[in-house]
Write a structure and sequence with these properties.
The structure is a homooctamer. Chain A has a five-stranded parallel β-sheet with strand order 2-1-3-4-5, sandwiched between helices. Chain A has one domain: Rossmann fold. In chain A, 44% of the residues lie in helices and 10% in strands. Chain A is α/β, with parallel strands linked by helices. In chain A, helix 2 packs across helix 10, helix 5 packs antiparallel against helix 7 and helix 6 runs parallel beside helix 7. Chains in contact: A-B, A-C, A-G, A-H, B-C, B-D, B-G, C-D, C-E, D-E, D-F, E-F, E-H, F-G, F-H, G-H. At the A-G interface, helix 2 and helix 10 of A face helix 2 and helix 10 of G.
């Protein structure tokens, strides 16, 4: 497993990350980590690697786009001095284009998204032991859905940046696509953006698999 | 306009009808009618046909399927002695099959749906001046979506029963399909089942058009 | 219809406009627009002209008089850069003279009202594609009522200014007077100032008629 | 003053009497008497006639019409064995005809009102030392207002019954008409039915004057 | 009656005056005046002298001593420019000596009380048409009670200052002493400091009597 | 100390005993015992005699008179099978005569008080290892106060019954009289009936002294 | 994995199971399953075996002992017709002996515990496809702690019964003992009974391991 | 008893001291002192030494370590000018090392603890008549528990400093150890840090014994 003893893992993103975390800093006992995948990641790290004493911090903020992450880089990432950082951002950048077509200033188009994310990654990567970029997803299997195809486009941008800056890429969309073969989107999410707990578990598993978590570890 | 002076119009259905109406009976001032299409129908009838003094009653109950409507026929319809009745039911009958596949006793399959609705209509029609059957809808334009195609099937059942029992059929799905040509489903609804107010206005308009409402009436 | 694709319509006024809108800016999904005529205007524009993607913003503030509107011109109108502006103000200017005769500093007398409104209109008109001035109303048919006759006087001032500055004038009082021929004031309002939803629908219809809204539009 | 030492005065009526009194019985310290004229009557009786130790009980219920009072006669009047009873009822009997013209079963027309009130008075009078009938009122000076003229009609019925059954008649409408010569209805009430505290004081004074209360009493 | 048309009467004091008044300024409709004697004074002035249009303002603050009144003179009295001012202060100055003997800095001893009150009166009197000084009271008839005898001492100071500065003196203690001849203190107050509504009515009557209020006035 | 290992001590009374205890039975951790002397007695018994494992149960009910205790004997005392019982009742029996002179049916006069208490004691004593009767008290040192002298009278009745039925008599009034030599009643209670915590400690000490509690016990 | 397509798994127990589940039946979306291990089990089953469509139901009740489970067998287990049942009970049976030594009727001693649990298992086993008995645990590594050694004793009883009735035994205590080698009890629980989320994850893992859950499953 | 007439005793510490005290200063009536040992100390001082009129002030803050006390020295101790000061601090300094091993910046290790406490004591002692240092405790009898042995170490530091700076040392751990001989830790505390009321009484007794409180005092 890639995380080392005493490492701090900071997870940043939008409402899917936030899930009601404590303010100003989402850390401490479980409720402080919100009620989503961050909390599950922390619980699994403690339950399976207790001696590693990993510190998980949730800095997600509901409604955030990549613009907000960039603005929060100093206060909400660097100031906390994480060893590892995970970023999952982009669905709001897309969603506003579809649910609020009249509020054009809230739309983050692909070019701006790519530039902003790349700047953020480039500036932050040197401060980190490891960086994880998680693909934004839409819990909809039909690729002809306009929002799904747009989210896919943003996901490709994330993948490209991950490769360029030596970050671990977590394909959350692929994880959901497997689940969607066995059930309608409404089984996993009421709005195709925010997952039920089973979906958060799906994200946590994809994340942990990507950092070499050993689910069958017994020798501790 | 088909409704006559002093007529009572009772509208029954599920959460799309309910929208927080008063209990036990949803009537009186506007808040008692919930915050959906029923309230809009009532406000438009009063604003355009004030001398008709139409009484609108909302008896929707969130989560209802056609089974529940049948069970409530005596207490929630006949006991109130409406002149006109509107029914919009079916989306929960379908939705549970998709969001709760493990809770099979909550699934109302097409045959049961048709039998139950037909019995309800047959028994109730003689007590009424007029009956309006509103098609259940799913705010999703892609017909290959499994839930959309299932809701379509239930909608056809409603249409068939409407024709057989001399009821006015309101094609709410067609009304939403027009809107969906000009915007993604997330513009009109966060879960494709419960509309934003613009969607409720769309339903109200479809209903009122079906009963001969004159939007340009000035001579009163 | 006079509004063009992508136009922003900002509606300002007192509690009849406000109706519990979101702060600091009343826009977004329906609840953010309050529970009055602004929300109905927005829903109707979306339901009948979805391709126009009109943005409606509610900047009403309960208790406001024309003095307050003038003070809020920069922050609450110009800063949001609307294409169209509607103003409905004046009933509080009058009401305080009748319900709080001892609080004389809250009374806005006709001369001050006219000067202030004219200044506001003159300064703001050049920044707008279109301006709508809605007449303040009192839901009371007896013109010998002292407050009705005073509100009428203020309404005439609005009409005069509308003509002078090329604004669309909406005669809401005339709309209510028609309703009052078919029912007592208590049917439409509990205090003759704040309408029930049917009254808000009445205002919305008067407004939309004035900007060329086609209620029977089907070809979209 | 007509009330004697240790007498219980029970005051029954609608929301104007109720004003948030305690349930099931409105008596005890001041908050239990609601926030209207009943509490003021009690406070004045205690402050000016402390040695009389009068017991005031508030049994008003919001929304009541004369039908409700009749139904509550046993449980809410006789069971408490008052010495004196005051009744003020009728405005809801009228109001529903104007604010809810579509809910015809809530309208208590003059004939039913008179019959019901007379039955109530006839059956209850023998159990009492004294009975006070207070005129229902509408805080509107223009007699051509349809609701004012209807309330006047009901007031005349009360007066007739008071004379026939040896009850003290309190002309609350006359008391309000004096106030309305010096201010608009909105100064005394927001809906012309429920008074501000000054209006409740007006009712309390009219009631106390009618039972011989000496405002300038000093010799105790 | 001494107050003239359009006069503003500002009443200042401690919790007995405050009674939950609105902040920052206690004026407007009745609830803004708190639930004590100030509200009763206002209601009686409106009900009996409606044409005078007297403005009553409540600036009481719970827990205040004379020190606080002095500190609030500019902001809470002069800035509001009253025509008449009433002051009732002193019971907290005394009470803290008895209920909190260990908190000596909260005790306002007689000398400080007299100096502070006199300074306040001397500086404020010239700005007023009339000044009313109401005696602080303790609802306890036994003069050998230590707190009663102390409050009596402070009351004498108030009386002396009233005479010296041409203020109307209202002997609220005498008014309560009459009531206490006909009932135990627990009938009028739960703690001998805060009156029940009957006690507030007693204060209001004493105040109004002192300014020449005509309880039997009919000719308006 | 008279209580033996495993004994249950049930304490019954009015609001001074109740103090917000749990329902239906006031036992378990400290909050369940209310916030008065019962909780203090329990904490002291545990802290000083931990090996005795005494079970303290609070069955006080606010507002109770001796009538209520008699009615609750079966359900609230016998059914719980206490070894020891303490009773403190009587202040409400007296208080209502003073604070609510008009509600005569709430007054428990001395004869009824004595008869009822004696019956209660006589019937219950045989079921108990020990019975403690605590004197009702009034936190007022002046014996010429009418309520103090009446409470004294009821206290003498309690003392007489305690002697007759072999119960331990706790003179809480004497305990408070000592405190009142060193401070005004308002230091220990805001209404002379409900003590501050120091007063509850005073009651707890008087009770524990009476059952032989050794405050200086160290040998456990 | 032992559970088959469409199986219902009902999990019963005390507060560790309950965790705020919905009433009367804890099923549906995730919040209805409480916030403990049941919810995690359900999420993991859905995320890794989506095609199995397993139905998980939480029937835990805070504070329950084995006595309560027996009493709830008909209504809370059989009536819901589960295919699989898990039981985790016993810590309250023990805890009351230690935290409430004075409330002896709440203590379930080993003999009663064994008899009751065995009866429950014997009667219920035939109705089930599979039964899982989870060992009660105490999050304390020192076996000389009196409560730990007592819980161990109860755990042995569960193990014995599991073997006798062909149930799967889940050794949750062993799972916690491993964690306690790498951290103090306060890291995993604030009271050594209720785990933090990491502890719930530990329970869920132990349970899923026991039923053959494949953590590395990818072929679906 | 060491405290003299009119002395102020300020008690500072962490959540065991705080217990919900009033902000910003915990003094006045009992609720302002929180619900722990401070309130009990105050009540006992008033009940047994009423003529001393001791002022007790609670300045505990939940979660505090010795670092926080040092930071609050000026504002929360010196500014209030106490005569006597008690300090009980240290359990959070230790606890975070065990419940939050990953949050290393919250760990106050022994050396820092000793230095900080000594500085605080040295600087503050000259301003005081008397200083009481209360040992931090852990309600766990097994000394091999890692947290118990660490708290013991910190307790020794406190003892050493008390001796060096002429402070009274209160051995709260010894007091709890006696109780733990007669019951499990869960009888006195749910988390071994925060005591039940019996434990707070235990602390209060240990404190009062240390300052020469005479439990059997009768001559006042």
């Amino acid at each position: 497993m890639l995380l080392e003893k005493g490492d701090q893992l900071l997870m940043i993103g939008d409402s899917i990350t936030d899930c009601g975390r404590a303010r100003p800093v989402g850390e401490g006992f479980a409720a402080a980590l919100g009620d989503g995948y961050v909390r599950l990641v922390s619980a699994l790290l403690t339950a399976v690697y207790p001696e590693k004493v990993i510190r998980v911090v949730n800095m997600g903020v509901s409604g955030n786009t990549v613009r907000d992450l960039k603005a929060r880089r100093e206060t909400d990432v660097l100031a906390l001095r994480p060893d590892w950082l995970s970023i999952m951002i982009g669905v709001n950048d897309v969603w506003r284009q579809f649910d609020s077509p009249h509020m054009v200033e809230t739309h983050v188009l692909p070019e701006e998204y790519e530039d902003t994310l790349e700047t953020l990654v480039k500036q932050t990567r040197p401060n980190l032991k490891g960086l994880v970029l998680m693909r934004p997803f839409y819990i909809e299997p039909l690729r002809e859905d306009a929002m799904r195809s747009t989210v896919d486009l943003y996901g490709e941008i994330v993948k490209k940046i991950a490769e360029k800056y030596n970050a671990i890429f977590v394909d959350t969309q692929a994880a959901f696509d497997k689940l969607l073969q066995h059930g309608h989107s409404s089984r996993y999410s009421w709005d195709r953006v925010h997952p039920e707990l089973s979906g958060h578990m799906d994200i946590a598993k994809a994340f942990l698999d990507a950092i070499g978590f050993d689910w069958n570890r017994r020798d501790f």
